[in-house]
Amino acid sequence: MSEFKELIFKLREDPDKIEKIYEYVKTDPVTLSKMPDDTYIISDGNHRSNLLNLLKVDNIPSIIDGEFKLVPIELLRRPNGTIGTQGFTSENMINLINYILNKKPKKSLFEELIEDKEVDKKIIKSFRSKDTLCPNIFRRVGKEYVIKDDIRKKLLEITNEYLDFIDVEFFIHDIVLTGSLANYNWSEFSDVDLHILVDMDEFDNKEKEDSTILHKIVQDFFDSKEKVWKSKHDIKIKGFDLEIYVQDIHQEHVSSGVYSILNNKWVVTPEKTNPKIDDKKILQKGEEYGKQIDDLLSKMESGDDITKETKDLYKKIKNFRQSGLESGGEYSYENLTFKLLRRNGYIEKILDLKSKIIDKKLSLSNQ
DSSP secondary-structure letter at 37? Predict the structure, then answer.
């Protein structure tokens, strides 16, 4: 029996993995075109369609004319007109399965470099606007979108658990969903950005102008709680990672889509736009910062003191992003470059590097 067939037979006996693959395809639906005879031609996603077919899933998560639908597998056609989802290579299918299930196949250094390039290009492509809001999170009612009832209920439940974890009494002004999942530029890389809005001035009995230091202390407390919570929990909503954050209502937050979970309505209604995205410029800047971070990692492994260099680079990247947000908003070249670095793991790399530097500096060896 071939490796691929054996893998498929094993997957068929594992409902959890089938569900994981299905949920992945829901976050990255296949693209179909409807034909006069009510069948559908696969424009994009033949491997995904075929994988679900082999796993005996009846319906394929699809986008048709900008609308999300579940289409019976028997109605799918290949571009040459024949019904079915055949037309694939075992190698590509195995790589797709490994990618979805987070089992990375062994690759040469050259293959890894090529793959990194392709991942970066895919990330940049994800910045572009979709025709609809995420169908796993929102449903269409007339001309508007409202959050699905089960999603809203779950987010409120998560918020209550998080507030119990914080264990401090304060007034909640709102609970909102923001970020790309509250906008048309959602993708498989999106997070469920859940923000709990509070008024930092309410923590201080003095005049507002005297509360700057307290504000920072309170925000640092909430940030620390967030980090501890993340280290203890791995919560996903329809395959998307959850990010929960306590935000001051006076803090400027640049987002063109904000949905109130508390009041079940839009605070800022997103609009479909076609921003000009300079792929080449973003890739070049992202690679430049990525190389600097990799160089710092190499220097640390060689025993060099990179404390100042790391601190300066991290500050430079933060300021770079902030300047873009202030001048061009969330679609600015600077902000999209930062998102590229975050989604391909480089922001996490430099944060880990900062922690390792502190650990090394504060440790005392036996010698």
Answer: T
Residue limits of CATH 3.30.460 in the chain: 138-268
Burial class, 55, CB count within 10 angstroms (exposed 0-12 / middle 13-18 / buried 19+): middle
| 160 HSE (CA, 13 A, CB side) | 7
The pTM of the full predicted model, rounded to 2 decimals, is: 0.55
Helix-helix angle 109-126:333-343, to 10 degrees: 130
Q: What pairing do the DSSP bridges indicate for beta strands 138-141 and 76-77?
A: unpaired
Q: Give mean pLDDT, residues 323-342.
A: 83
Cα distance between residue 308 and residue 314, in whole Å: 10
3-state helix, strand, coil in the chain (%, to 5): 50, 15, 30
pLDDT of res. 211: 66
Q: Which amino acid is at 360?
A: K
For residue range 48-67, what is the model confidence (pLDDT) as tens digits? 888 888 898 988 988 887 67
* CATH top-level class of 138-268: alpha beta
Q: Are 48 and 25 in contact (CB under 8 A)?
A: yes
| 8 A C-beta contact, residue 200 and residue 215 | yes
Q: Tell me if 333 sits within 8 A of 285, measured CB to CB.
A: yes
pLDDT at 262 over 50: yes
Average pLDDT over residues 215-221: 83
- Alpha helices for the chain (secondary structure H): 3-12, 15-27, 46-54, 90-100, 109-126, 149-166, 212-232, 279-301, 307-328, 333-343, 346-362
Q: What is the pLDDT of residues 80-132, one digit of tens each?
A: 555 556 666 677 788 888 888 875 544 444 444 445 556 666 666 767 778 89
C-beta pairs of 207-212 under 8 Å, 24+ apart in sequence: none
CA dist., res. 97 & res. 5, Å (int): 12
Q: Are strands 40-44 and 30-34 parallel, antiparallel or unpaired?
A: antiparallel
Q: d(Cα 355, Cα 70) in Å, to the nearest integer?
A: 46
Q: What is the CA radius of gyration of the chain?
A: 23
Closest CA to 31 of 157, 131, 175: 131
Question: Within 10 A of 211 (CB to CB), how many other CB atoms are there?
Answer: 18
